[in-house]
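Before going further, learn to read the protein records used in this course. The integers have meaning only within a learned vocabulary of local backbone shapes. The record below shows the convention in full.
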Amino acid sequence: MIITNDLEDIIEDTTQSDEKIHPWRICPIGKHFVKKHIVHISPSKKHPDGKVIEKHAYCAINPSKKDILSFDETQAMTEKYFHQLSGPPKAGVLNGYANADKFDAEIRGWTQYWNDIFSFPNPLPADLVKALIASESSFHPETDIPSGQGDGRARGLMQVTDYTMSILGNHHGELSNYLICFDHPKLLNPTANICAGIRWLFRCMIIAKSKLGDATTWVDAAIQYKGKLGINPPPREVETFLHHYSCFI
């Protein structure tokens, strides 16, 4: 376990490219980032009133050895790297939404990150992600509604469901790697939500391709994300997404 006082020290300790799955990651493969936090120790004979200690940031070992993104690492990556990036998504396109351009840095960063991780021949366009967010939540990050999947909820900018998070965080489930593990209510955090939503969108691309073959597009993947692939005529929510995306093309 690496224990240091500072995020920069952790990054410096793991600078070799073959140790990390991506240059932006804070921790090496097989570990996940835990930020500095307070721990309350229960009362004991030695400390009858209990004890409060501060644990410095560190890289914790992943039990399954799979790659895991923790909530803390999504925050650290965003703060350190995303606001330095440029390029899509375009600003000033969806002017009907007050917050339309507020999350461009997070969309840009996570789109680039997951494109780098998966290296699909046809990269995911950041503009498509922005159009999808517009159709899912109208850029309201606090959106928290029943998902329609049992007692689950759909939360945040990309309306990521509890069911989706149970798949993204399952060490022994359908995903072979690249897991995302944090408490579901933290999906109300914009960058954590976009990270999880885009990760699921890549999974939807694989699912859509299994249905449609090699001609599958990211538009098909987005419709699969909505659970509406193959429905004709397209439901209103699909038409809304397609309209928003057409504004970028």
